[in-house]
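Reading is simple: each integer encodes one residue's backbone shape. The lines below illustrate:
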Amino acid sequence: MKASTLLLLAGLATLGTSCGQDAASKKLADETEARVVASIKQVLVQAPAQAGALNPVHTWYQSSEVPNIIKLDPGAEAVYKAHASILQEVATNETKLASDPILTPAQGQGIRSGYQKLVDESTGNVAQLTNLASNKTTMSEAEQRTFVGELAKKENHQLELVRYFTRRTASTIDLKTRQQKSDEYNIKMWGHK
């Protein structure tokens, strides 16, 4: 009788420990989600699609399909933060650059479509991460960590592409503006360009 009681108590202790670990992991996931959401809200001050950017974050951190070690991977957080930065960069610069008076309407539309393509690619990266959380996967934990790490690299590269596109577009507009002013000066001074 004493041995069976010890066995029962050992089983309950193990169950209590695992439930405590699950509760602690859940609490850690909730705290991480709150931190990431706050960080994204801080970045998305001017972006209009704020709620749309936060839904995948909630799906990711509340998923029961992904182990906590993967959910809490810094790469996952980096993907969501980079996506928020991309949305912020586009919201800040797209309208200003595309509506510059030096550009033709077709050139302005080209700038808008360039930004849209970059945002769509970023959204695709976020969707891949969210799909991992919402669908059963046959990947091992190591494969999932590698997948999340690669997505973080892709999303960081995407952010750098958006920043490069902004710099290149602003530089081109500046060059056109200077050329136009130079032409106007030459016409005024010499009567021709």
